[in-house]
Specification:
CATH topology of the largest domain: Rossmann fold
Structural class: alpha/beta
Helix content: 25-40%
Strand order of the largest sheet: 5-4-19-18-17-6-7
CATH architecture of the largest domain: 3-Layer(aba) Sandwich
Length: 702
């Protein structure tokens, strides 16, 4: 176990989810005696959730790897760092020499976005591999938002966020910010922020197939059928157009193709989409009028909109709804943060960010240097030139987090080589030939490169380590640096050097030294209008109806005539989880099992199901057995399962998670089911059947 840097109070950000809550950690006699929210953090204002306290569990976790291990038959054997680096590079070089660079694939897991050491150092290593087979969690989560931002504003990272601290009508679709604390919207302490909307006379309205934790505290919740949100958004727009409620605001001069948007919406009036969406026409029109009449409304749609067959259309139409009501780049509406370290610094207007290459088998386009992860399995399975023969994963568990995970689990052993940079032996890394574990959490320096880019207030905070690592450990940037140097003979800048450069050239011309001097963080103030100056479109205008999106409306139009599945599966975000390895933190796994299939009262009664029963859930891709939880909080015809579970394999070295294994959502999803517009995996609204397991089957499972 490593030692504390010093006794006393340490102030740093929690990096376990998007909220980046500021923490105050008290160390006495080398151990943590208190951990709580930092009331002086200008973004989180003292907020903290259960994940913050779990940092201590993850730091002390006996299952966490601290030195490299290599496969030795069915077992693991230790290996020295230099020997491990040499082994990794020798194997990768040989595969590239024989089969070409694209025979090596890379998968980046969600936690890479939560670690500045990884973000600011892995690029040199990835570029040295020279492979086009790059994949990440982006295309099972948020790719439609990036595509919409690219088409409308000129860059995939130019995603606006709700100015939630000044809005007076918060329309939420397919999101549960009370649990996520924002997603592509860094907004810690969301319960307080939602309460403040109501205290200033505003309203919170939630459209969702489940009565979420956010819906429970909202002014209004309306059930909407999974996968129908694009049609609902078009009906809202049609009402605003047909009733002359359009108010474009100060960005009107830079908008183009408003007439095309108007005509597109006309084909989806409220009366036409009511049956498809499950929302009455009168309700759709009333919400549209309320939104348009509010002084500072904002519409926000997140993962439930992105992870469906029409994810791209949804994210475009959310932005279009804000635009026609003058809510783009307006206080209380959708605004663009101006982070101190800016991901788009140096980007050029009109620069290409998509379609520069395509996947070998299905021809899916690259977007922002990555291919959709839905193509990963077929690229491994399909013989021929360019077939993936080696995989590098970084902080990822795609067996549990990407579509058709059960099939991926069976395909991975067929690879020639697998390298994982990860602190755990999980469902994916158990197949590795070599695991290189980086130092973790409280041992690392950290700056939120990603989440300041999507924060609802412009702040900056640098986190110093609480504990020092021992000689046997390595930081992530040391691992990537050693691999890069062996591949290219070159050394890259350290994360500190890269961060300091970015801060000096960013919006506030600050420095790493200046930010470090403010232990509670630096407050640069509320979001401020910055358009059209930050636009990166070739013509410096905003396209309200990009041609590719308008063309995709034919697919939506056809869907309105298709039969509705008897049961549709949706996900469920949980406050005490974010990524699968958090299921190994004892503090986060207390209480009853959380991996349950929620099912509505009528749907359960029709199948003879009660809470606590073991049910079998089946889709075209696979089937699972899981405990049922009967609830009034679901729309009829909808069932819900949380993601990231499925820890029952004995080869997985996660002892706490193994005792609460649950079942994997992605054993039910299909890698061929995607949003055709963006390539994002369509994980939401999966048609399933649910039946009660007979006693003999339950006994066999037990």
């Amino acid at each position: 176990m490593s030692r504390a840097i010093r006794d006393g109070k340490h102030h740093r950000a929690c990096n376990l989810c998007e909220a980046i809550c500021g923490l105050t950690i008290t160390v006495e006699d080398g151990r943590v005696t208190d951990l709580r929210g930092d009331p002086l953090d200008p973004l989180s204002r003292g907020a903290i959730c259960p994940k913050g306290t779990a940092l201590l569990d993850l730091y002390a976790d006996p299952d966490r790897l601290r030195t490299p291990i290599r496969r030795d038959g069915a077992a693991w054997a230790p290996i020295e760092w230099d020997a491990a680096f040499d082994l990794a590079v020798d194997r990768l070089r040989e595969i590239a020499r024989v089969h070409g660079n694209d025979a090596i694939a890379v998968y980046l897991g969600n936690p890479t976005a939560h670690n500045s050491g990884t973000l600011l150092s892995m690029g040199g290593f990835l570029n040295a591999l020279q492979t086009k087979n790059r994949y990440s969690a982006t295309s099972v989560d948020q790719l439609p938002s990036h595509v919409a931002a690219l088409e409308m504003f000129g860059h995939p990272a130019l995603i606006p966020v709700p100015d939630v601290d000044r809005t007076d009508y918060f329309l939420i679709m397919g999101a549960n910010p009370l649990v996520s604390n924002g997603s592509l919207m860094t907004a810690p302490g969301m319960r307080t922020r939602l309460r403040e909307i109501r205290e200033r006379g505003g309203r919170v309205v939630v459209l969702d197939p489940r009565r979420t934790e956010t819906a429970a505290v909202a002014d209004e919740h309306v059930f909407v059928r999974p996968g129908s949100d694009a049609a609902l958004l078009l009906a809202l727009l049609d009402t605003i157009f047909s009733e002359d409620l359009v108010r474009l605001g100060r960005l009107e001069p830079v908008f183009r193709k408003l007439d095309v948007l108007r005509e597109a919406a006309r084909a989806f009036p409220a009366e036409r989409v009511a049956a498809f969406t499950g929302v009455a026409a009168d309700t759709i029109r009333r919400i549209a009028r309320e939104f348009a009449a509010a002084r500072r409304p904002v519409a926000y749609g997140r993962i439930g909109l992105s992870t469906q067959a029409f994810g791209g259309l949804c994210q475009w139409l959310v932005l279009a709804l804000n635009a026609v009501c003058g809510r783009l780049d307006a206080e209380g509406g959708m605004m663009w943060p101006q982070p101190a370290f800016d991901l788009i610094l140096g980007a050029k207007a009109g620069e290409a960010h998509s379609g520069r290459w395509h996947s070998r088998v299905r021809g899916l386009p690259e977007i922002y240097n990555e291919l959709p992860v839905a193509a990963l399995i077929e690229e491994m399975q399909t013989p021929g030139e360019g077939q993936i023969r080696a995989l590098v994963t970084v902080a990822g568990n795609p067996v549990l987090s990407t579509p058709n995970g059960g099939l991926l689990d069976r395909v991975l052993p067929g690879l020639d080589f697998m390298l994982c940079i990860d602190p755990y032996v999980n469902e994916t890394t158990r197949h590795a030939d070599l695991i290189l574990p980086p130092a973790h959490g409280l041992e690392t320096e950290h700056y939120d490169v990603i989440f300041h880019q999507f924060a609802v207030r412009n702040t900056a905070r640098y986190s110093e380590p609480v504990f020092a690592i021992d000689e046997s450990q390595r930081f992530d940037w040391q691992i990537f640096g050693a691999l890069r140097e062996r591949l290219t003979g070159k050394r890259g800048a350290t994360p500190r050097e890269r961060l300091d450069t970015g801060l000096r050239y960013g919006a506030y011309r600050t420095s790493l030294e200046a930010v470090r001097a403010h232990e509670h963080g630096v407050d640069f103030g509320p979001l401020a209008p910055c358009m059209p100056e930050r636009l990166l479109t070739g013509d410096a205008r905003i396209d309200l109806a990009p041609a590719t999106f308008v063309a995709d409306l034919k697919r939506l139009d056809a869907a309105l005539a298709e039969p509705v599945p008897e049961l549709a599966l949706i996900g469920r975000r949980q406050l005490r989880g974010n990524n699968s390895w958090m299921h190994n933190a004892p503090r986060l796994m207390r209480g009853p099992d959380r991996c349950t299939l929620q099912i509505g009262i009528a749907d359960a009664a029709a199948r003879g199901i009660s809470s606590g029963d073991v049910v079998e859930v089946a889709s075209d891709a696979g089937e699972i057995a899981v405990l049922a939880e009967v609830t009034p909080d679901l729309m009829p015809g909808v069932v819900s399962l949380p993601h990231g579970f499925g820890h029952g394999n004995a080869a997985v070295l996660l002892s706490v998670a193994h005792d609460r294994p649950g079942a994997s959502y992605n054993d039910l999803t299909d890698s061929t089911r995607i949003d055709e517009l963006t390539g994002n995996a369509a994980l939401c609204g999966v048609p399933v059947s649910v039946r009660l397991r007979r006693e003999a089957e339950v006994a066999a499972v037990s």
